[in-house]
Amino acid sequence: MSEEPKTSTPTNLSASARNYAREEDARAIGSNVLGLINFFGQHMDLETLDGVTLAYDYGEALRELDRGVETSSELSASKEWGIGIAMTPAVLRDGALKSHILFNAVFLEGLMEEPDSEACQEAVHIIAHECAHVEINAIKDRQFPEVILRYRPATWYESLRLEVIEASWDEYAACRISAGFGKNPSENYQEVLLNILGAAGPNVREAILKCRHDSDYDALLIEAQRNIGNLVKYASYVLGTADGLNQDAEVDLPEISEAIEGHWFSPFFQRLRDVHRVLWERYGQWESLAEFETIADIWLEMLADRGVEVTQQEDGGMYVNIPFRADTSSFQAMMWGIRQATKGIQGWQLPTDRGDKDSGTS
């Protein structure tokens, strides 16, 4: 008789179910989730998994999670360009860094269907993806102790850079690790990326024109980061999944390839792919956080490409400059102001750039 494969899943792992209408459903789905996590522990390092929460009140469960330390921000479900499905935040338990998986219970209902059904396989992949985050948190903590949940960025500039690096690399790696489990999520990721791809440029342009009127550079940077940061993040989802499935974006993802051709984001997409692959080759062997800085550099160059130049100052702060360009000129800003003042009165709209393809004016 062959031995059962060893799993790294903690033997005392338990699942907490919240707001289930029927206890038998909570028990059945909880048992399935724990069984799958035990299986994924044969393929990933899940030794630092703290616990699992299945919640119909997902947003509330995120807010109430005891992370073992005071944090500067509150956990919240994604609402922009995608619905919050699951999250695996780091937590501190008796001084040791661990990870806690929280699932939006709605997206686990497929586990009650036939194993080969699409809904069931989607749920399987969601669980695999979050398990991958457990391993990633553990490896990062091993390589860079005293950083996760312990280090506080000294400036907003540093905080933004770390935010982009973490979102981009963690999702690339989690997608690459979990790519072969359950239903292929590539189509969903591509749809989100295409939506952001079309909206990010025009949204940043709108924010620049607004800033020319109110000089609120903080608001400009928040809006620019919301768009450009998410573009980097969701491109990493697509790239990680493609690399995990040994696909070539230009050949195997025709919609992405067509959308990016001639697009201002195209060179950045290629560079992001290259830097992630380099980091993957050194997975778990990184010697310095500086190895990840290229991701933040690409993000800064993307901001500058869209007309928002951010530079670090000697005191650690940052200087934001919005140089005049054809699509954000003083005339365009004046027309933007007129449009705001006459909203609901006139039917015309301010001419905008195409957003998705370069028009040769910038």
Mean pLDDT: 90
Low-pLDDT windows of residues: 353-362
Proportion in β-strands: 5-15%
Estimate the global geometry from the Cα principal axes.
globular
Q: How large, in whole angstroms, is the Cα Rg?
A: 22 Å
Spatial separation of the terminal alpha carbons: 68 Å
Assign a percent range to the helix content. 40-55%
Task: List the total number of helices.
Answer: 11
**What's the structural domain tally?**
2
Q: Encode the helix/strand succession as letters.
A: EHEHEEEHHHHHHHHEEH
Structural class: alpha/beta
Please describe the biggest sheet, giving its number of strands, its sense, and whether it closes into a barrel.
5 strands, mixed
Number of strands: 7
Write a structural description.
The structure is a single chain. By secondary structure, the protein is an alpha/beta fold. It folds into two domains: 15-152, no CATH class; 178-341. Helices cover 51% and strands 9% of the residues. The protein contains eleven helices and seven strands. Strands 1, 2, 3, 4 and 5 form a five-stranded mixed β-sheet that branches. A two-stranded antiparallel sheet has the order 6-7. Helix 1 links the parallel strand 1 and strand 2. The longest helix is centred in the middle third of the chain and has 29 residues, at 186-214. The protein is globular and about 70 Å long. Mean pLDDT is 90; it is low at 353-362.
